[in-house]
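Journal club side-thread
Mid-discussion, someone asked how the predicted structure for our own chain would compare to the paper's figures. Pasting it here so we can look after the session.
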Amino acid sequence: MYIASDWEDYKIIDTGEGDKLERWGKYTLRRPDPQVIWPMYAPHLWDGAMAHYNRSSSGGGKWDFKRKLPERWEISYKDLKFYVRPTGFKHTGLFPEQAVNWDWMSGLIKEAGRPIKVLNLFGYTGGATCACAKAGASVCHVDAAKGMVSWAKENAALSGLSDAPIRYIVDDAIKFVEREIRRGNHYDGILMDPPSYGRGPDGSVWKLEERLYPLVERCSLLLSDEPLFFLINAYTTGLSASVLKNILVKTVVSKKNGVADAQEIGIPVQQGGIVLPCGASGRWMAR
């Protein structure tokens, strides 16, 4: 398992009964997690939750605030800073488990000893974009949601990357990739965090199990002559890590050789001595 164990501003305090108790900087939140199918380890700690996202039986849910929280606040990961806030869909604008992938990509970029171009598809609020730019890469950040791209720009500024070579694109990822292929553009590193299900700006339906392989296959055509890495993340889907590895073997390895690997991705839990799984990541690198 790839484990994000270097956080200081974020911790999973405990898990149980379908929820996780987390500390985001100075604030403690309780949020649902479908992977948590066991009892709480330390029930007395849960009274400290400052906000609780309650799922509705009819779908969705809402936050129950036990005390007033800031509209948003800052948290840090090493030399990066991000804004987080409770959103309407239980999320906070950051997936902390991805820090283990930020470190992996940053290390490869720094070790390359040459200019590196990175494409971040479904870039969300820019955690990976900031990590790659901080390591010295130029980054093309693509997301269909204008609000998420604005949030990514704010995170970059917060991390001291206002003048970094980051290109922000509000667009459908698949359409952007097809245009880049026609333009003859190439990238040394490609990463993607596609949703399990969604609708594009034109109403088209996205289902990960149907769209992922064709997208990775098309993206493999965008890799440069000296590619560095390719990363696929899968969160709330039934796709196993082995499936992600097989996709990379059939697309990227077949064209560029190199090594593919995939594992679950997770975060340590302070109480109970366990690691909470948070989906899977498939990685390819040139060596």
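Post-session note: The chain has a mean pLDDT of 94.
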